[in-house]
């Protein structure tokens, strides 16, 4: 984009180079997190809940280079996400939306449609959500903030009930998570009805608001209220924006709000930058130009901080925290952090439209 700051151009080129090196290192496996000192990746065979982020990152590279070889690599990893269609988890939104929405790989649209139908089949109309599921162990009937992103647009595309399910899935999570301060990311059903707070992830988790912001932005765009229907609660969106996108909020959040001396989480900041750019686009289309400028400014500030203070010499986003509670990869490069930084930069530079993915 003409006039883009030099820091963004440099960061974009560095991230693309990091993808090239990662492809050579991991081969047919999916990268998960990398050691901050050596840059060596811990990998998985099927991608876990982050496989769609790796496929999405590969598509961003393919779109930037227009290289048929890069496109073929991206298409291959997208094809391999098929395994997750039948897995019982709301994280299918993260896997199958972000892994298929870019690039137009052969079969990607069909893959996404099949995944969306399976997710709609798992929708519980009584509870008003797709449960977190049992694919990763633990209780199945959970509502978790990380079960919102990607699943909202995935559900909304299904004819005959998908749009309503997407709206209710989002609003149920907003209502539950924002019923406490700080927002509680996970809730479990009670045997006799209702919900009770679930201890993991703990309240104050860095990605709670980030995931909800991203889901809310997509919900406002994809499932705006029709006549006689309630919309995404404006008060909930305002609270989320105030928590993490206001002028006083730190650009990079702590991994756990209750541990002021603990690690930060750059991956949460990258997600928030993408959400801010989406919300800015919505505000602009609604004629709310001041709000749009403020959100765009905030996104640019986050991306600049990540690009100038947390990017490794090899182009990886450092200082991401996978799981502070378990002490797992607490100051590492995380594949979803790299993906959302790259996506945010692409949106900021005008290479990708805010709601292309």
UniProtKB/TrEMBL annotation:
One of its GO terms (biological process) is carbohydrate metabolic process. Keywords: Hydrolase. InterPro entries: 6-hairpin_glycosidase_sf, 6hp_glycosidase-like_sf. One of its GO terms (molecular function) is hydrolase activity. Gene3D superfamilies: 1.50.10.10. It comes from the Bacteria. Coiled coil: none annotated. This is Unsaturated chondroitin disaccharide hydrolase. It comes from Streptomyces yunnanensis.
């Amino acid at each position: 984009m003409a006039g883009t700051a030099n820091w963004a151009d440099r960061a974009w080129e560095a991230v693309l180079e990091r993808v090239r090196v990662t492809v050579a290192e991991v081969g047919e496996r999916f990268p998960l997190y990398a050691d901050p000192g050596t840059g060596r990746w811990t990998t998985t065979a099927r991608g876990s809940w982050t496989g769609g982020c790796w496929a999405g990152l590969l598509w961003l590279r393919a779109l930037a280079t227009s290289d048929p070889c890069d496109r073929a690599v991206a298409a291959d990893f997208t094809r391999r996400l098929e395994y997750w269609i039948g897995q019982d988890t709301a994280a299918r939104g993260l896997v199958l939306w972000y892994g298929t929405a870019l690039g137009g790989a052969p079969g990607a649209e069909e893959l996404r449609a099949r995944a969306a139908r399976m997710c709609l089949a798992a929708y519980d109309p009584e509870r008003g959500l797709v449960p977190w599921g049992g694919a990763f162990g633990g209780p199945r009937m959970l509502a978790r903030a990380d079960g919102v992103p990607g699943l909202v647009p995935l559900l909304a595309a299904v004819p005959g009930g998908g749009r309503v399910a997407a709206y209710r899935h989002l609003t149920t999570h907003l209502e539950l998570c924002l019923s406490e301060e700080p927002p509680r990311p996970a809730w479990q059903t009670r045997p006799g009805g209702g919900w009770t707070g679930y201890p993991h992830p703990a309240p104050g988790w860095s990605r709670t608001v980030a995931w909800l912001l991203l889901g809310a932005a997509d919900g406002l765009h994809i499932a705006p209220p029709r006549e006689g229907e309630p919309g995404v609660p404006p008060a909930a969106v305002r609270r989320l924006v105030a928590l993490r996108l206001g002028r006083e909020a730190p650009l990079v959040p702590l991994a756990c709000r209750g541990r002021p001396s603990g690690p930060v989480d750059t991956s949460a900041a990258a997600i928030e930058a993408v959400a801010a750019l989406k919300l800015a686009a919505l505000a602009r289309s609604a004629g709310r130009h001041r709000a749009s400028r403020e959100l765009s400014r905030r996104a640019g500030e986050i991306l600049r901080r990540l690009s100038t203070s947390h990017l490794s010499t090899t182009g990886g986003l450092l200082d991401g925290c996978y799981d502070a509670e378990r002490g797992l990869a607490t100051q590492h490069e995380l594949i979803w952090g790299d993906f959302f930084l790259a996506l945010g930069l692409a949106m900021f530079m005008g290479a990708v439209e805010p709601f292309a993915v």
